[in-house]
């Protein structure tokens, strides 16, 4: 079985440790969550895995290959096998949906036939086939993330790295995107790693999870088992859903409603139309 392994990885910025002897194993075709408060190095883990950032010590091993030993040319080929999606979608505003999805294939010199076939396939599986001529500004947040997912899969990668990919979405779009990711994992047999600060996202999607604290994976294992061990103070930071009441109201005076909730310290979400 192929596996991603972090072996005593250390990464610092200006002398400040972000990752401190991080050890982590992620199995092939797994849905794995990386969770922790803001600023603990979650995104850095993905960047080290993809070779976007160099680490000072340790090793990242993917399919038996040590990422830090790759030459620039080898690293470029390696990255072809790793798709990335982000919180802010990172779509190209001047390009329509078709050409946003096709952009990685164009960079790799794929033929027009290959591009057309792959884009149409991905547009269908992500539910964006009716929006291929639309530009990003014409799409909802959930639709933009679907385009970003399709683009990340354009080169048929084995790994999909999702960096806070639901943080900018309303609850309904979040549920829809996570459902899509699960169907894509089954269809394409890919490994998906989700970085998030929300326990609810991990509960809904992941099989296993690693909690990052102090630059290390402090707890790793089955989601239910790990979350039973999460300290209460960290549970509050990670937006645990236990005890949350979900309801919808129609607002006629938005600012008054916002002030009412803010004054009482009530956390709330505002849903946009998908």
Automatic annotation (TrEMBL):
It comes from the Bacteria. One of its GO terms (molecular function) is ATP binding. Pfam families: ABC_tran. The keyword Calcium does not apply. One of its GO terms (biological process) is amino acid transport. Keywords: Amino-acid transport, ATP-binding, Cell membrane, Membrane, Nucleotide-binding, Translocase, Transport. Residues 4-239 form the ABC transporter domain. This is ABC-type metal ion transport system, ATPase component. It comes from Fretibacterium fastidiosum. The lineage of its organism: Bacteria, Thermotogati, Synergistota, Synergistia, Synergistales.
